[in-house]
């Protein structure tokens, strides 16, 4: 066999599968977004009608705004706490290994499992949260966390934050171990304060890790389907709906496959920005 | 009293230690809460509040979830779906990883980035066509539909991972084999695969958890309740035992045991897999 065909001999079967099950479907969804289709009869091509309809769809707007809130909270809480924990745990602390394992343990639980357990925590009667609030004398704060449209979204995000923080911590920890201790030591000898060390030495050296953390956090927050589906199904009054969940309901509950496809394309387009950021970071690593 | 630098350092470390201890306890409260709930009766919790001493400890909730809640069937299904998917995706991705790591050719970087990008796309962009495809192939509402999509979709991450591992295997090894007349496939099979076993172990640990924990594909590709994996099964359970939270939480704990077992025994590999590509 000619030398230049050799890699393709290895790649042909995997690429064939990948084309049929991933690449083809991605392109086909883009086509379907330009059609009206009930899933039974043939899809009817209708141009950009679905996208025009999206512009006037209040549920679409609510979902988009909720995605945005989700993103902002995900960027704020898990990333900051994760970084803080990573810095603390990278020092010589007793039981550091145990703490690390405890903090990232929620990661191995399925989102569905976490959603179920947290639904119980938020239960108005007998739930852990309301019971604890009553127990410590804050009874006026108790409420039906998931049935109240003002708190439901934040309650769902809270469960997701609990799962994601440990992951962020792990990523930062692995980034921190790559920083040479002599650099830190040198700055200490030069009299830099703890804050200066963090701001001018550690943070810049952590930049590649930070890019990966931000991108993974963004993508995780946009993928949030399981939590919403398990905890609220998007309710009450769509107050917890997000694009990933709205797409599923339109396509598979209401059989508006074409319309569902257009929501999927919007979600894909938003995520594509972060995917490109990630790929650039990977490529930069390759060229070095 | 003047404190020495050494003493100050010890005090600071003591404070950090205590703060971390408190944080960790609060962090694990949902897990403690779940375990405590699963071994009590609903009446006990409702009448005496969550923060009361359990009147009696019972494992009845686990038995109810296991047999009446069909967790036995759901867990069996999860294994039937996860294990073939795991083998399939590791086999296909080893081929990709090897080709991308070993050979310089036009399109190498493009294919690499395509797999890396592919692992990050939202499932929503695939749901409708894959649903239709599995209908067309007659594997809708069977284990095969799920096995196929998991096998192929997870190739994105696995190829990325294995390529980056295999690229560190020195070229001299294959040169030597080639002089001895080994074919390229033999080099892959006899040299690269055995040397990549640690990476494959790390990957298998991660992928087991991910495939086992999948929910959305089970919703889209299965109709029959008897075929559902444990994630989708828990959603059914939630519908059938609406107010029996002790049974539901016991079910959630049962559903998690397999991934906990994998994690406890293979923790080292799990973390190595997760942090790959970020610490450079």
Structural features, described:
The complex is a heterodimer of chains A (288) and B (280). Chain A is mainly α and 288 residues long. Chain A has helices at residues 6-32, 49-55, 58-89, 96-104, 111-121, 128-135, 152-177, 181-189, 194-205, 207-222, 226-231, 243-253, 257-287; strands at residues 35-36, 44-45. Chain A has a two-stranded antiparallel sheet. In chain A, a hairpin with a 7-residue loop joins strand 1 and strand 2. In chain A, helix 3 runs parallel beside helix 7 (152-177), helix 3 packs antiparallel against helix 10 (207-222) and helix 8 (181-189) runs antiparallel to helix 9 (194-205). Chain B has 2 domains: 5-61; 70-274, MetI-like fold. The radius of gyration of chain B is 24 Å and the shape is flat. Chain B starts with a helix and ends in a 6-residue tail after the last helix. Classes of the chains: A mainly alpha (288), B mainly alpha (280). Chain A: Keywords: Cell membrane, Membrane, Transmembrane, Transmembrane helix, Transport. Chain A: It comes from Halanaerobium saccharolyticum.
CATH topology of the largest domain in chain B: MetI-like fold
Assembly annotation? heterodimer
CATH secondary-structure class of the largest domain in chain B: Mainly Alpha
How many discrete structural domains of chain B? 2
How many beta-strand segments of chain B? 0
Quote the average pLDDT of chain B: 89
Classify the secondary structure makeup of chain A into a structural class.
mainly alpha
- Taking pLDDT < 50 over at least 5 consecutive residues as the criterion, the unreliable ranges of chain B are none
Mean pLDDT of chain A: 90
Our estimate of the beta-strand percent of chain B is: under 5%
Distance between the termini of chain A: 33 Å
Helix content bin of chain B: over 70%
The CATH architecture of the domain at 60-250 in chain A can be given as Orthogonal Bundle
The CATH superfamily label of the largest domain in chain B reads MetI-like
Using only CA atoms, what is the Rg of chain B?
A: 24 Å
Q: Percentage of helical residues of chain A?
A: over 70%
CATH topology of the domain at 60-250 in chain A: MetI-like fold
Residue windows where pLDDT falls under 50 for at least 5 positions of chain A: none
The major sheet of chain B is characterized as:
none
